[in-house]
Every structure is written in C-alpha cells, then in structure tokens.
Design brief:
This protein has about 280 residues and is α/β, with parallel strands linked by helices. The chain is built from twelve helices and eight strands. Helix 1 (about 15-25) packs parallel to helix 2, helix 1 (about 15-25) crosses helix 12 and helix 3 (about 55-60) runs antiparallel to helix 12 (about 255-280).
C-alpha cells in the first residue's frame, strides 16, 4: 500500500495548502509520495524538504516586492513572478530551500505542467530540484498570459492547472493506492468557463493547443472534482477542502491576508489529523 498526497494549485490560495501541510509536518504525518500542481508544487515541495513555515515566511516577506507578482515585473520581464528573484535569489540566498533534506527524503515528489504544443499534462518526478527540475517547477506555476512559456530543451510548458488541475488519477496510475487530496476551493465550488476567452485566445495565438485546453478547462476541472468525490466514497481518497471561499486573490500583496489564509489551512489541517491517520492506517 502506497500513500500519496495531491495538492491543487490556485496561486495565493495555495497558502491554505501550505498551512495544512505544515500541520501535517509538525505532527508526523508522512506520505510515500506527493504530486503538486502550480502553487501546489511550488509551496508543496517544502513538505519533502521538511521546512514548515517556509512558504508563509517568504510570501509575507516579499509580498510587496516589485519582483514578486506585480504588473511591473510582467511588463519588464514577461513574467509576473520574476524568474531570477523567485526561482534563484529566494531559494538559494534569501529564504534558502534545503536541497540536501529534499534530496535525502525518500518520498517521491511530482509536479505537473502543460505541454504548449499538445495542451496535454506532463508529469515529472523532481529528485533534486536543481537545473531543469527547477525550471519544470517554474513551468508548473507559469500562468498563461501572466508568464512566458518556459523552454526546457526543445519543449515549452505552462501551468499544470490548465490540463490536470487535480491529478488524483495520475497519482493512482503511479501506484499510489490511497491518497489525501488538498483542494483550494470550497466543496460546493463549480468552475465556470474562462472569462475573456477571446482576449486569451489572441494572447495565445501561437499556441492553439493551449487555447483549446483553456476553453475546456472548466469541463476538465469539474469532471476531476466528480472523480475525486467518487473516490472518496469508495474509500480510496481523503479530501480536504477549505471551510469556505478563501479571502484572498490569486495575486495578493497584503501579508495579513496571506497569514489569514495560511492560518485557515493550519487549523483545517489540525482538525483533520486524526481522520487522516485513520485513513492511512486502514487496511
């Protein structure tokens, strides 16, 4: 029996997930592997490196930096989150990521990105989070229009949430029998069609497969929600939802709102501890 953890994206809603996994870390709940999408990957990798609190620290510390989620950065670099600052300066120097602990932890960590030529999801196991692996992590969280295509070798990638926002099936296909899934939308959420799709299609005119995936994104998302709910009824998945709509935008510059959403996640994680232990111990 292999136990997995799946973490949905949602930009700054991912601080809810950061709170949940910090509650798990501080109380000794460990998984054989994890898979994150977008913010679920970027924040969730701290679970494998065993660094509770790190995601909250760097988000609140740099919330108002122009390199961190600003229109200024988008206009200057083509990325709303500047590559050098967010994926080099922060993890290597300003708020160090423990690469040694990450690499030595035997648990697998997977991230999801979307291939811009096919519009299909790509799943990669990230063993060191160095070099191209860090680039793939960046790709997983690179939102269309707000980010440039991330080139890795001769392939291009964008946000994993476009093509597989809740990758429970992908985790099951990799041999994980029982999975805990952390969502960043409330249980009654239903995704609507993409607004301003015409403008989106114009911006993505060089990537028609991504445009089509964006058109169908709400359908894929709602189908995956139905699937995870069905797997929960069958006893193969344990779902953790926010208790209500999270009071934060996709891009957020208020550290107090960030802490509030993180605290909601931490409290929710604490409330689920015993049930998660029972789920993972069930035969």
């Amino acid at each position: 029996m292999k136990y997995g953890l799946i973490m949905e994206g949602g930009a700054m809603r991912g601080l809810f997930t950061a709170g949940v996994i910090d509650a798990f870390m501080k109380n000794g709940i460990e998984f054989d592997g994890a898979m994150g999408v977008s913010a679920g990957a970027v924040f969730g990798c701290n679970y494998k490196s065993r660094q509770p609190g790190r995601a909250l620290r760097y988000n609140t510390r740099f919330a108002r930096y122009p390199e961190y989620g600003s229109v200024r950065s988008l206009l200057k670099t083509g990325d709303i989150f500047e590559k050098q600052f967010c994926y080099v300066d922060v993890p290597e120097r300003l708020e160090p990521f423990d690469t040694k602990a990450y690499t030595e932890n035997p648990a697998e960590f997977w991230a999801v990105a979307t291939d811009v030529d096919t519009g299909m999801p790509e799943y990669r196991k990230l063993e060191t989070l160095q070099g191209d692996e860090m680039e793939f992590m960046r790709a997983s969280a690179s939102m269309p229009v707000a980010s440039k295509v991330v080139e890795i070798g001769d392939r291009g990638f964008l946000d994993g949430g476009i093509s597989d926002p809740i990758p429970l099936q992908a985790m099951e296909e990799r041999g994980y029998d029982r999975n805990v899934v952390i969502l960043t939308q409330a249980e009654d959420y239903v995704k609507k069609p993409q607004k301003l799709m015409g403008m989106m299609a114009l911006a993505l005119k060089d990537h028609p497969a991504v445009t089509e995936a964006m058109r169908r994104r709400h359908e894929v998302y709602n189908q995956e929600r139905e699937y995870i709910l069905a797997r929960q009824k069958e006893g193969a998945a344990y779902l953790i939802f926010p208790p209500y709509r999270l009071p934060i935008g996709r891009i957020e510059h208020d550290p107090n709102k960030m802490r509030e959403v993180y605290d909601i996640g931490y409290e929710t994680g604490m409330e689920h501890l015993e049930a998660v232990r029972e789920f993972m111990n069930a035969k």
